[in-house]
Amino acid sequence: MKRMTSRRTLLAFSILGLVACSGAEPDAMETRREATGEKNLLHFVVDADAPISQGTNDLHVSIEEIATKTPFTGATVTITARMPAMGHSAASATIEEAGAGEYVAHGLSLPMAGRWEVQVVATRAGTSDAATITYDIP
Amino acid sequence: MLLVLALLASSPSAARAAACCGGGHGLGQRLGPMERAAASASLRMSDRVGSHDPNGRFSLVRPGVIDGDARADLAFLVAPVRRLQLGLDVPFLLNLRRTTEQSAWGGGIGDVTASARFDIVPLSSAEGFPAVALTAAASIPTGKPLGQNDDPLGARATGLGAAEIRPGIFVEKTWEGTATAIFAASVGLRTPMIDASGEEVRLGPRARFVAAAGPVFHSGLSLSFGVVSELESAPRIGSTTASDGGRRRTAALGFVGYDLGTRFTLLGSIEVDLPISLLGKNEPSAVAVTLGLRRAFSWRD
Questions:
Q1: How would residue B74 be classed by pLDDT, with cut points 50, 70 and 90?
Q2: Taking CB atoms and an 8 Å limit, are A85 and B246 in contact across chains?
Q3: pTM value?
Q4: What is the ipTM of this complex?
Q5: Mutate which of B67, B156, B160, B195 to test chain A, going by most A C-beta atoms within 10 A?
């Protein structure tokens, strides 16, 4: 595995000349994102413990009612992800409420590099709103 | 040896092995004027080195990440009549995925491809004019698409998830056995598919252009270099088409062939997705190396 890593590193550096002129090194992905719901009813803050990457990811979602500025507790939250360029989709495994409008989504699978659109939908009684967060995995 | 460039340029194994994601499924191989059939086996190894985002910006893959693929192709070609060739390609894939947190591997049979070629201007009668042929390929979704995977790294994905028809044209020019050049163009048209969430996904058509040229030596060695460009329009998911969902890919190609006697040819190629911003869009970038062996059967056999 070390030898494989060395070869890959050498290959990567061998084309780095072109990249340095016209490309970009991957920056650490900003993990905190905020979005207002499509219906302007809820405000979403989505965060993660580590940069979003290929494989499984855990997300922390905070939801607040815009009109009352109070946590949106007791909601049914669903999280789905889609890669718009290739039509792939992924669903979060489990979502649990951590209290005070905080929800934790475990095991959101993003199997490929590329742009993923993660949609968060929150519903409680007669109130429902959704927001889409975009992540680019290099 | 003049066949080598045409064979490698049109071989499905020379096409990008993006099993899940619609990289060109190939134009079908070609038989030479004196050949009535051929069988070949090839092994392609690739590794992702980065990707282009929706704005065309290139980024290197993160340290510790491996997106490796191995693909073995068994291909058969036969000419039932002189100007018509029919082919079949059966791929087998092995995928290795690794991040700093997880790893997975998997594989299986990929999407089987049937091909056909009709010579409008055969190579043997070209005499200064380029040979021209119409090509067609049909890929059957015998592989496992990404949506049916239960592993978070998609290592068990071996197919597109949709059938594809790929009509095209192939133009070839030779210079008295000293050099050869080819140009090939095709477009892949896909059937709709249902994704994991139950929505209908209609992938856009994917156009593929290949241009290559190189010298041929009397020793039996031939070399060629070229470029491949692929363009794909954004998919339609349900009733929505993503505004930034189009795809673009540009790669450099290198081929080598060597005759082992009169029946066998050793083939090799390297394909490098160019890590230059704006030459790609919504595409992973990889380096792939292929090695193959071809056995030909002449009309006199």
A1: very high
A2: yes
A3: 0.87
A4: 0.88
A5: B195
